[in-house]
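Retro notes (design track)

What went well: tokenization of the new backbones is finally stable.
What didn't: we kept losing track of which sequence belonged to which structure.
Fix going forward: every design gets posted as structure first, then sequence, in one message. First example under the new rule, 207 residues:
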């Protein structure tokens, strides 16, 4: 199931992000800002528990987020562009990394790194990667996380392609996807159109 976050600020910033004139510095800043806005919606249903506190004036029953700390998972490299923004919301969250790159010929993900915190079964895992194209990287990352014990996961991206969403949902029907937009289609190189180009290269200035 995909939820498109159609907040006007998300959509305005996404337009700026897509433009080919947008510089590396601006691209990075916009990713961070959009990630914060997406994160706000994605974490809307975090459970709360009561806590008694004292204000300077009196004792009161307040609330706090309950349960073990959240875990954010960045799918390297481009996930790093989203991680910063969502961390602004929950600075104490635990962080895991899944290193994947797409083989240019087959478009299949190749794994090169995996490191996640302890206690994955008790944590809500928010997996972040700006692009869900064929959906194979997202599905592979979630498979690895489930093998590491994760039970409750959400996937957050900026752009998704319809083909990739179908693939991901078939592989992981229990994992909801949140996106800023669902674009038209993939091209022969499995790039999203109209898209924003190569997210990793635009974030890091590698092309
Ligand atoms: O849905 P898919 O077809 O699998 O494609 C999406 C993947 O491609 C991009 O990463 P890339 O392989 O370019 O690596 P990078 O983040 O290191 O640039 C993107 O960040 C996703 O991880
Ligand atoms: O359009 C795409 C597809 C995969 N990865 C990207 O960075 N962009
Ligand atoms: Mg890339």
């Amino acid at each position: 199931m995909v939820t498109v976050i159609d907040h006007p600020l998300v959509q305005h910033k996404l337009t700026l992000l897509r433009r080919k004139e947008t510089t590396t510095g601006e691209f990075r800043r916009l990713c961070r800002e959009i990630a914060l806005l997406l994160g706000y919606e994605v974490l809307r249903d975090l459970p709360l528990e009561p806590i008694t506190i004292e204000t300077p004036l009196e004792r009161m029953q307040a609330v706090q987020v309950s349960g073990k700390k959240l875990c954010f998972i960045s799918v390297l490299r481009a996930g790093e562009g989203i991680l910063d923004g969502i961390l602004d919301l929950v600075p104490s969250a635990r962080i895991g990394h899944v290193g994947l790159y797409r083989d240019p010929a087959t478009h299949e993900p190749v794994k090169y790194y995996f490191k996640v915190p302890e206690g994955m079964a008790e944590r809500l895992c928010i997996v972040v990667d700006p692009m869900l194209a064929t959906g194979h990287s997202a599905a592979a990352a979630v498979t690895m996380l489930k093998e590491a014990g994760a039970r409750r996961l959400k996937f957050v991206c900026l752009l998704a392609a319809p083909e990739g969403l179908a693939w991901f949902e078939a592989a992981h029907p229990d994992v909801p996807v949140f996106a800023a937009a669902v674009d038209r289609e993939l091209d022969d190189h499995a790039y999203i159109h109209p898209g924003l180009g190569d997210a990793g290269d635009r974030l890091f200035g590698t092309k």
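Added context from the reviewer: Residues 2-204 form a domain with the Rossmann fold fold (CATH 3.40.50.2020).
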